[in-house]
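Hello K.,

You asked for the raw outputs rather than the summary table, so here they are, unedited. I folded two proteins back to back in the same session to keep the settings identical. This is the first:
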Amino acid sequence: MEAPLYPDLPTDQNTPSAGLPAFWVGPRHLAGDDGRLYDAVADTLSGLGWTCLTIVRGRHEPDEDEDRQVLRSTVLHISPDTLRWAQWTLADEPFHLGDLPIAWQISARAEVSSHLAQWSAYVTPDVPGEAVADFLVALDARDQPALPLGGPEQVIDAVAAHGWLRDIDRPHAAATDPMFTSHISLGDVPPLIQDADPHILTAAADEPGPPGWQAWAEPALGTPCLWAASFGPSVPHDLVAAFAASLSSTAPVLRRVLPEATQERLLRAPAG
């Protein structure tokens, strides 16, 4: 079992990261988001030339009690061709995935004239920002973000190349890391996942709909998930493979604040 090299490293996510020592940490899939998931993704999108909009809706009456204020704000990042967008939902009453609130919703459409997303992907807090950023870089590089490219085997091939173990019964559709804490699987999608696949609407209540990729980390059996990610059935497999390759990468990541649930499983060394 991997053990911490520096057990005194701060792990409280509520502790401000400014002034804390920086450490190189691994494995990446258990390292959390350093409390910077918005910044990590927003910086990537800014570098790609996406436009950032803040949408404010609701009403704020100065003389109302704080719990009666209905003001809401959403931060939306849109690609230059407007075919893809990413929405920061954490501050706007998001729905939950694996009992965790959705932090980012990423969507794409096939044509500018379409008013509906062809697919959407969702990530919760503590998904490593590097994996979300690499997914977005791959998405930005595509001329047609809704066009399927390749089959599902490339997703499992991506994590298997980094030492993850293929599921014996579903070797091309499911895998787990060697510590059996993080998983990726092609199967039923959770409720409320938006997708333009018509089979989702026509499937009977007792019939499985089209499968989508799900990923999650469960630090110990029966404990709450550290993070979760869900990809609608129409998300191209090559984009999920980019996320999976980054998530399972053996390269260490820079962190100042670590998830308390995984501190005993992390290797770390001082940066610089």
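The second followed immediately with the same parameters:
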Amino acid sequence: MQKLDIELAGCYTSVYKQHSSENLVVTFTPTNGFFLYHNDLNAHKICISTTQPNYYIFNPGSACKKIANYIQGLGVKNILLIGSSKAGLASLLWGELISRSLPTEYNVFVLSFSPQTLLYPFNERLYFPSYRVLMNLINHNEGMKRCAENYGDINKILANTELQGMIIYPKLNPCDKAEAERVTAKNIKLIGLDYPLHGSFLPFMKQAKNPEKLQEMVKKIYTNAKNDEDITATIPESEEKLLELVSAINVPTIEELCQAIFFNMNSRDELDNFHNVKKLGFI
């Protein structure tokens, strides 16, 4: 694992994994570790995590300029940013800011699962324990308050964007549905799943296609929940219920979805004509 030393703010940690393609995936971690680092996505990877409950809104402008400069030395042309939950917010926010810092010949696409889209002013819908911590930080730190004022409403950031992307969310989860459907950016497609859980990324994991591996993944989620209040707040009481809900959703794997997105980025299809993605059958 190669640490990416581009002088991001101290709260951010990033690593890089080389690949032979012209594709790059930038991932943001919702809990711990480096999201999708070990998945084969046919792309270079930059994986970013934060050590603070700042929802990735702390000084993103400076960070995104540094990442954009680094990207221009990689020899890639297609950039896909992925995140879930608070990291889903990051994929939208940082995706827009990175695209502003790159020449127009780069293709940038964002893939956001169940993002929070309104952090500031206070959003009573957001029931996550980490959001209460964030609001306390905002209320007691002038620097974070300025960041919240500038970046706390994703819909405003994306108001005039040409950025393309997808927001995938559970239609049966009132909070996630409301947060996703706030976004009105013309090139960001909203895809609602018949699914009730905040963890809308789970059915896209390769393990979800294999009953034994799915059981292992679910067990690990409940183990991790003991040390993460946000996970605890968003999963059913029993492992059996989570297994039932994830198994009932028929969606492609994240590997298949990324491959389809990169295919269309290479052909520069418009979002409404995303034929190769539509072939996956969940749009």
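The chain has eleven helices and eight strands.

Happy to rerun anything if the numbers look odd on your end.

Regards,
P.
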